Amino acid sequence: MSYYGAVYHIINHALFKGVMFLIAGLIIESYGTTNIDNIKGLWRRMPLVTIAMIVAILGITGAPLFNGSISKYLIQQGLASHSALEYVIVLINLSTMAYLIKFIPMLFDYPSSASVAVIKPLQKTVILTLSTLSLLGGLLGHFLVNLFFGLTVTWTLWDYLEKTVIYLLSLFLSWIFYEYIYKRRRLFKAIREFQLTFNELVLTIVIFFGGMMVYLVVTV
Question: Can you tell me the distance from the alpha carbon of 169 to that of 49, in angstroms, rounded to the nearest whole number?
Fold first, then answer.
């Protein structure tokens, strides 16, 4: 189940991360900066883009009814016998929520008289299509998982309510961490200011996945 969940997550990742990368390009083009501290009022300036971004964020963080929740659920179910890896998945999701929280100030604090950014129809179409697919990947998750992988997975209303409570609690804990630990501790400030070169970044990724492979070979 984890294997097919991972494959489905690769598909989902292409959708919601594709949306985020395309939106980043539009924001940089419109605001003329890559500094998120100088980007405000996204909701007023680029309303459709903002909606697509919110949908993508909900997908990335595994919100109920969105595609990321389906693939993450399958991965966690398959890891039921490996408690250590289950905690790693939870930690990764909490950190994902925490770093996305910093985007919230971008939505507000913009003069009401400011003009709406002009976005080309094709750009809107691509972004809205990808974000819609992110939503449909969650709403139709049962059907798609069965169609692609032959897995029969069912969720009850209670399961959705439980996932919603867990998601909201995780979001709250991530906000607490971001506001009262990440932004105020010197250690995290030093980490934010630390810059890796491209080669160092690639090496870090290789070490991470190499460590994961060693763990799986030893424990499975």
Answer: 27
